Amino acid sequence: MEQSISRLDLILSELESQVCVPLRMDPDDPWFAENLVKSHTVNKAKCASCGTLYTLPFEKTCPLCKFKPGRVHPPYFKLDVEGIKRRATGNAQTESQTADQIDKKKEDKEKKGKNQETGQKDANLTKIFEQCNFRVIKITNCRKHPNADKLILADADIGGITKPLITGLIPYYQPIDLEGRIVCGIANLKPKKLVGIEGQVMLLAATDKVSGQIQILKPPADSEIGDRIFPLDSPFLINSTITPLEPPAIIPSKQFDKVVEGFKVLNGKPTFYGVPLVTRKGEITTIDISDGSEFH
């Protein structure tokens, strides 16, 4: 019997020397980890969360707290007492600031609605309007978009300069309805591709708030192509010695959106915060569009 045990020990020792793993102890038992032979296959590890010893790669997680190596945050963390104190002391101030911000937004919204009703507008909105290149334009070469049923392609003459125009007025207008027409538009928005084709000019059209019908704005009959469009109370229309600013090549979309917020149809006339839009030859008009309808 003793000879058999001795022979078995020799065999196990030889195997251990070959695989570099102690075969006569349980590698899954973390309490024997101190006696494990360090090798490329078996290593002892200490849990980063609770400190329990366990063996790799046999145990993927800590047997006590189930923490998995490689996590950014262990399940047991230090309580941030100072942070809680700071948040508690600053809570009243934060609530006060939040309330002030809400009140300010509410006041701005009420002021905006009141301005639209009374026709009042901020002084800087007139300057922003000047930067929008609203023009009397002539539409030519109208045709349907090859890849979109509701889009119309055309060339827009804005006064000696021709730019591509794309509009989605079908079914309210067909290409033949727009060919050669004198209309109103804006010519310095950021170029935008619609179904693969770029447009640089946008028509101005009103949408009836009752019927949903869309109608393009009509400039004065004797308008010249390229005439600029302004509110009637613009300083340079009142005082001929004042020259309007030249619009930039591209108007930021946020500024254009601010201008569009003031667009309403009143008494059959497109207005900017209640002030009619005009050229030097007369007023811009619409036909059978309900008051309060929007246009852009």
Automatic annotation (TrEMBL):
Domain of life, per the record?
A: Eukaryota
The Polar residues compositionally biased stretches are 90-100
GO terms of molecular function: tRNA binding
Q: Point to the regions of Basic and acidic residues compositional bias.
A: 101-115
KW tRNA-binding (keyword) present = yes
Which controlled-vocabulary keywords does the entry list?
RNA-binding, tRNA-binding
Give every TRNA-binding domain span: 128-230
> What SUPFAM superfamilies has UniProt attached to this entry?
Nucleic acid-binding proteins (SSF50249)
Q: Where is this region: Disordered?
A: 88-119
Query: Which Gene3D superfamilies does the record associate with it?
Result: Nucleic acid-binding proteins
Q: This protein is called what?
A: tRNA-binding domain-containing protein
Please spell out the taxonomic lineage of the organism that makes this protein.
Eukaryota, Metamonada, Preaxostyla, Oxymonadida, Streblomastigidae
